[in-house]
Amino acid sequence: MQKVFQIKNNKGQVIPYFIVLTMILLISWAMMINIAKLIRDRMILQNSVDNTVLSVATLQARTLNILGATNYLLATILSAASNPKVVMFPSLSTDKIAGSMIPGIFSDYKCLGKSNYSFSSRTGVQNLRKAVNAIQTIQNAAVAEHYMKYLQILKDIPAKDCSVIVVPSRFVNDLKNFNIPNISDPSVLLGLKKNTKGINYYETKNYCIDLKSKHYHIVDSVPYAKDKYSWYVQDKNFYDQKFIAYGVKLPSAKSNKGYPLFANLIGIKWPPITAYSAAAVYNVDGYMFPENENTKTGLDPIVAVGMLPIVAKQLKVFWDFAELVAKIPIVGIAGAAALVASGAYYAYQTYNNIYDGLTDETTPIRQYKKSYNGGWDAHLVPIK
Predict the structure, then answer these.
(1) pTM score, two decimals?
(2) 3-state secondary structure the chain
(3) What pLDDT, in 10s, does the model give residues 161-170?
């Protein structure tokens, strides 16, 4: 006869199930906490990367605006200078810079009121050179400050335990290979370089002559000084105004202490968290900087208006000399006609020079005038 065994005490039978279910719930809870932590850290890191790259791009835009404005100011001062080899003819070129055509602290075209007297003056061109060098010092300081602020942004903007690198996209071969640039000249970040055509300064030699009770001036010049650089121009990478940012939070970060939960029990390791972003600098109206190195300053309309009285005065000199020559026997009318023709040629050349200065697209003044209303700005863009 088969015997039936019965457990007389049923207490504790669910404990194994309860332990197993509790473990499953704990592991599930730990996994949710770990995933939530990863997602939170990833969001914080992405925000840090976005903020950092946009801050760097905004800094770039502001620095380009400063350099563009100082480029314009530097070229405008130089554009007021005269050509030292032609009597009060506008130079509009850094090849030959003499005292300003416009009366003032930059002018060396002077008269002491003495007859048959000559003297040299370099005060005006000295002041002009000092002003140019002061502007160049401001530009150098702006470029250096740009680099320091760039490093400060990389240090201060990222969230705690996050590291972010931001470089121009030309230094990124792929998103896993960031080539950190070796910065010997901070302007490499801006895509700019200094114009190496230089500036040649001349002092002015003034001659005062009295003829037939009339007082005349003749101007000549001699070399005075030379500067190696003038304004900023575009470098070969100027049009690459995009920045790529790479951010990482490593497993060893202090805020990861204790994570992942139940790591030994579950057998998982905390992964590094990475994020990427990109921002670009743009100007909707133009590029503000000359494309190539050259010696042309360009001309602002206000400076051109200031030159006109001096040009008119020079034309009157030609006319006065023609009147004198006309009274000379033998030379007479032919000589006077030659002087009038020379005056007409001077006026024609002056007009062409001024017109080219106002319209030439290769000059720093023209480039700035075209694009300063748009100005440089920055925004986030797709990485690719």
Answers:
(1) 0.84
(2) CCCCCCCCCCCCCCHHHHHHHHHHHHHHHHHHHHHHHHHHHHHHHHHHHHHHHHHHHHHHHHHHHHHHHHHHHHHHHHHCEEECCCCCEECCECCCECCECCCCCCCCCCCCCCCCEEEEECHHHHHHHHHHHHHHHHHHHHHHHHHHHHHHHHHHCCCCCCEEEEEEHHHEEECCEECCCCCCCHHHHCCEEECCCCEEEEEEEEEEEEECCEEEEEEEEEEEEEECCCCEEECCCCCCCEEEEEEEECCCCHHHCCCCCCHHHHCCCCCCEEEEEEEEEECCCCCCCCCCCCCECCCCHHHHHHHHHHHHHHHHHHHHHHHHHHCCCCCHHHHHHHHHHHHHHHHHHHHHHHHHHHHCCCCHHHHHHHHCCCCCEEEECCCC
(3) 899 999 898 8
